[in-house]
Every structure is written in structure tokens, then in C-alpha cells.
């Protein structure tokens, strides 16, 4: 009997990463993707501003980059359309916002809704917005962390894919707390994006399941 042909091996999941700053989360993904067993290829890195370390990290890794500054467009809608088109040109299966400090708009969500994730340095639904670590510190919580979520039109409101918790120490300032969060955040991001790529995922309402159907 001839052996049953197995289906051809799927290639790595194509990832576009969007950044606005130092890009340590991007670096963690680039480092992980260097191992073929991780199952991800970072096919492009986009940014909303030039001259940032995140773009330099991509260039050092030989990954193509693009930049769209909001100020270079007549309105937010045309910026959003250009961002979506530049991402789409690389045919990603998943888009990761890794420290991308802009809200994406309707054109972007039309193209990538349900397959775009963002990481936020707080335990959602607490402390949404740009000041997650500072707001957690001011509130006096003893535990905070990071949240990976599916991007929707709101500010850090999307369905939660993964969360990781870190303690708040008595002598923390915003910087020490954010650094502790970022260490945990990078590990969560690498672990979760890899599992999403290798095992697949489903989003039904607010439920996200990796590797198995939503009940
Ligand atoms: C991360 O904590 C991210 O959640 C927040 O900004 C930080 C970006 O860090 N929005 P980096 O640019 O990946 O180093």
C-alpha cells in the first residue's frame, strides 16, 4: 500500500509588528522567531515615527520597515488607510502592536479585525490608556501586570488573550514598576504569540481560545 501523503508543512505564520519606541517587545519576538520551531516570521515592522530604536532593531535583523506619521496625512482616516495598506502589502496572518502608541481606526480594523493583538502594561480592565503603570502606582494596587488583547475600536478594551501579574513593591517608582511589568510582558507576548501561530486561535465575543474551539 502506498503511504498516505501527508499535507505539506505549513510555513511560519507571517507577522507584522507595529512599534513607537524602544522596541524591546519587538526584539523578544525577533529573537524567538530566529528559531524555526517558534513558527513565526516577522515580515515587516511599521512605526508612527522615524528614528526610534524599534526601527533600528528591525533593520539590524534585516526586516523591512515602514513609517507613517499622522502629521504627514490630511486627516486621521487617511493615515489609518495608509497604515492598513502598508501592513496588508506584507500579507501578514497576524499583526502585533508592541508599544504602538496610536489607536488604529476603521480601515485598519476592517482589514485586520480579529487578527491584530496589542499589549498593555496593566491588568485589564484596570488602568487603560497611556499611563497604565503610573495609574496603578497612584491607585496603590499591590499587584499589576500586562494584558495581551485582540484590538477593537476602544482604548485597551478588546477581548483578552493572556495576562501576567507582577507585584508592586513599596519603593517602586513608575520606571521600576514599568520595567518589572515589561520583563513579564515580553515573556507573555513571546509565549502567547508563538502558541497562536502554531496552534491557531478563535475569538468569539469576549472569549479567546488558543488551539481549541470556543465552547
Ligand atoms: C510596553 O510596556 C507596552 O505595553 C507599552 O509600552 C511599552 C513598550 O515597550 N505600551 P517597548 O517599546 O516594547 O520596549
Number of domain units: 1
The percent of residues in helical segments reads: 25-40%
The biggest sheet, with number of strands, parallel, antiparallel or mixed sense and barrel status, is: 7 strands, mixed
Structural class: alpha/beta
Number of strands: 9
Overall average residue pLDDT: 94
Q: Strand percentage, roughly?
A: 15-25%
Task: Spell the H/E element sequence.
Answer: EHEHEHEHEHEEHEE
CATH class, anyone? Answer: Alpha Beta
Low-confidence stretches: 1-5
Number of H/I helices: 6
CATH homologous superfamily placement:
Formyl transferase, N-terminal domain
Main-sheet strand order equals 3-2-1-4-5-6-7
Distance between the termini: 40 Å
Task: Please state the second-level CATH architecture.
Answer: 3-Layer(aba) Sandwich
Describe this structure in words.
The chain has 215 residues and is of the alpha/beta class. It has one domain (13-204): Formyl transferase, N-terminal domain (Rossmann fold, 3-Layer(aba) Sandwich). The protein has helices at 24-33, 53-60, 76-88, 106-112, 132-139, 174-199, and strands at residues 13-19, 40-47, 65-67, 94-97, 116-120, 143-150, 160-167, 201-204, 207-210. The protein has a seven-stranded mixed β-sheet, with helices on both faces. α1 (24-33) links the parallel β1 (13-19) and β2 (40-47). α3 (76-88) packs parallel to α4. The N and C termini lie far apart (40 Å). 37% of the residues are buried. Bound molecules: 5-O-phosphono-beta-D-ribofuranosylamine (GRF).
